[in-house]
Design a protein that fits this description.
By secondary structure, this protein is an alpha+beta fold. 34% of the residues lie in helices and 21% in strands. Strands 1-2-3-4 form a 4-stranded antiparallel sheet.
Length: 134
Amino acid sequence: MSASWHPVANAQPTEWLLSQGALGHSYAVVRRFSFGDVNQPEIWFRVVTWAPRSEARELIGWCRTLEAAAAVAWDHRCAAESWRHHLARRRSDTATMAAQRPSAAELVRFYRAALTAQGVRALRPPPQRTTMGR
């Protein structure tokens, strides 16, 4: 007699490592969190920049859906590349770049505002903020 249930049926993904393509470099980590009532938890997704060590990662934002989290992570990737190219065109050295670098959340905010100003229709929802102190 074989069991119709397997432990994988209870498995819930809690962390995603985002990278471009199968061989691309990782650019963000998304982690799923549940808060509140165990029977009806409030689900949030925390998005951070990718780094080999957790201490070196930077918060991009909190989102209510995995889709919004993946979108804000991608926008951060695009914003960071755009910002880096902008400073490189000015022949800025790495120390100047590091000193002038805005936070990850601010980079995304500026990037999305620039897209809107250029008339590019945003298909992505903005990152959602929480006052939960996390």
